[in-house]
Specification:
2 copies of one chain form a homodimer. By secondary structure, chain A is an alpha/beta fold. Chain A is built from 9 helices and 10 strands. Chain A has helices at residues 6-14, 17-35, 43-50, 54-62, 76-86, 102-109, 146-153, 164-176, 203-214, and strands at 40-41, 68-69, 73-75, 93-98, 118-125, 134-135, 138-142, 157-160, 181-184, 197-200. In chain A, the strands form 2 sheets. A 7-stranded mixed beta sheet of chain A has the order 6-7-5-4-8-9-10. Chain A has a 3-stranded antiparallel beta sheet with strand order 1-3-2. In chain A, strand 8 (157-160), helix 8 (164-176) and strand 9 form a beta-alpha-beta unit.
């Protein structure tokens, strides 16, 4: 499948990654407006919601086509569908979660993933006390079966929710097992090959950004 | 205290917010190197760790002073201390947490906050079944006492870990109670006054950023 995508990939790489990073935020806001029964919005309204200039929003979207008309704005359901296609979330992706502690439990019990394109399909831990436990509707599996299960589930994305001391080891194992997209909750910067994409969730990074301004 | 800070605030506002957002990431990486017993690093090494150019790192840091010498690099403990001062995390800030569900529990049980400048000082919920429960060492309080407790604790930062339906209401209440810095885990864009800073943690935003490239 990948080889047929080569021309698209080339085009994709020309769009700045920071623009791509804003598309999910636009989609979230459009879904919120849709859930309020709204049919039409404007770059001005979106901009006010998000604290981004309307010109920036129009410019970001213009990379992908013409989604609105001058004076009439954007049709919300249509733009949602287009953004879902662009972001490849017009399907549901299997995500594997490593770490069945309280954070792993919270992530697995969150029921807002599936409507946005993702499903936690398996949970792994190395603690024998946790293996076999149920987290929501999922039974915690031994991390020894990770590689095989990733193939079975055709999973391309993993979440690391283990203590910081274990995070690099788990990342190495995930990458060996064929995962190239990792969301890491441990407060560490992982060493990974250039073809692996890691994103981080670390509340302290946000707190420290805030306290700069709190002086 | 705030009025004496006016000149600093003016200088601060000249430094792009995106630069400020990178400082906590530099600090996290420097602390990691320090924990490995390292004394000296370079913008090249930091850049390789973080996937940021060494020129960008030098430029970012140059907003705040001269921290390294050509050829000898950065003294890690010294640069950590300076970044802690710049980010105002050479003290510990009280943070209030709203939401005592599984996510709130995971956040409250995380023991990596204090060494980085933060302490979850109180947890609030509106569910009578949760009020009075212990989360780690903290007893869950009724949200009715929020305003008073925020003053008592001199808290300036709040975390919202409630379901999406309750998030705007909780944010309004926090803001009325004097909070102007909010970290929101609910998948929503909050409507807040211009003087209130909100940052968001939403794993789906990261997942969708990844799936764009997974096509």
């Amino acid at each position: 499948m990948r080889s047929t995508k080569a021309p698209v990939k080339r085009i994709k790489s020309e769009i700045p990654d920071i623009v791509i990073g804003r598309l999910p935020v636009y989609l979230r806001t459009l879904n919120l407006l849709a859930s309020e029964g709204r049919e039409v919005t404007s770059s001005q309204e979106l901009g006010e919601h998000l604290g981004i200039s309307s010109a920036q929003i129009r410019k970001d979207l213009s990379h992908f086509g013409e989604f609105g008309k001058q004076g009439t704005g954007y049709n919300i359901p249509y733009l949602c569908k287009q953004l879902q296609k662009i972001l490849n979330v017009d399907k549901v992706w299997s995500v594997v979660l490593v770490g069945a502690g309280s954070l792993g439990n919270a992530i697995a019990n969150y029921n807002g993933f599936e409507s946005r394109g993702f499903r936690i399909s398996a949970i792994f831990d190395e603690d024998p006390q946790k293996i076999g436990n149920e987290v929501g509707t999922i039974v915690v599996e031994s991390i020894n079966g990770l590689a095989e299960r990733i193939k079975e589930l055709d999973a391309h994305i993993a979440v690391i929710a283990v203590p910081v001391q274990a995070a690099q080891r788990v990342a190495d194992y995930l990458i060996e097992s064929g995962i190239a997209s990792i969301l890491c909750y441990a407060p560490i910067t992982l060493s990974v090959p250039a073809n692996v994409r890691v994103e981080y969730i670390d509340p302290v990074i946000h707190f420290q950004h805030m306290t700069y301004y709190l002086g």
